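Hi everyone, sorry if this is the wrong subforum. Our group has a chain we'd like a structural model of before ordering constructs, and none of us has done structure prediction before. Sequence below.
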Amino acid sequence: MRRIVCSQYRCKQSKGFLIGAPDPSCVPCYCHSVLGRAFSLHQARSMKDMGDTLQLVRNIIPPLSTKKHKGQDGRIGIVGGCQEYTGAPYFAAISALRVGADLSHVFCTREAAPVIKSYSPELIVHPVLDSPDAVHDVEKWLPRLHALVVGPGLGRDGALLDNVKGILEASKARDIPIVIDADGLWLIAQQPALIQGYQKAILTPNHAEFSRLSDAVLGDAMDSSSDHPRAELSLSQALGNVTVVHKGERDVISDGKQVLECGRGGSSRRCGGQGDLLSGSLGVLAHWALRAGPQKTNGLSPLLVAAFGACSLTRQCSHQAFQKHGRSTTTTDMVAEVGPAFSRLFEA
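Answer:
Right subforum, don't worry. Here is the predicted structure as tokens:
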């Protein structure tokens, strides 16, 4: 894979990413203009009321109807869950159901399956992820799934990661949207070619995961804390315009062409599991957005709109749960707020 660490992305004097007109000491190139246009869009959007983008999210949400059949509004698969980590896949899967998916499947290891199943009878749990035929066992379900979330509770066992590689390849061959989080991102940092150029992939790194990805893909572990949009744009472009959702004080979302920021107030509580709520809800919204198409998102990338919706929803859940529970807030409290938060944001 071609690394893009070169003078065309760097200003020789400022040593920062170039946005807009190049410094006289820089080598002018096409990349400058691409980043310039993208950042201009970011600046324009960040000055607008977030309500405009929330309206685009509302546009992609399918109406409820008694005429629909089970599964029509989303069948989501979660790939993850091992002996040590059973909560993460549960949070992702139950969040997908609460957002509005009809069915939620969890593909996990044999030891994790009974634990995850005990959390909720509503989940369909497949204890196949550590079997010799794991790729085949998951692949036969792919025709029934609308989106895949890879990584929650996955762990870093080599055999499991090898199986996930095969599952990713099979999912790409079927053109399935893939949300990659947690240890799925660790795998991508080791082998970026797994999702290079697959524009139905969405990566959801936190600060540490973003730095790891930047180091692996760009050869530079960026400190993006003061310069979010340039960093996300560059990483997305380097990966072939996959969508990147950089979680933080403000969530920054880019497909390498445009940037959205979600700064909706959440809470100061940082309990584990909030990213799983985001990834599960994003799987559903990605399916809805792609089905609705750009005509419902005013020309904006459907996956950008889906990601903005998932970030807004997660932050609203956090805010509402914190109002009730304060310092003792957990992700279980946030999951309980998915319905009310969804109604407040998207159905009011």
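For your construct planning: The two ends are 46 Å apart (CA to CA). Strands lie at 75-79, 103-108, 124-127, 147-150, 178-180, 201-203, 243-246, 251-254, 259-262.
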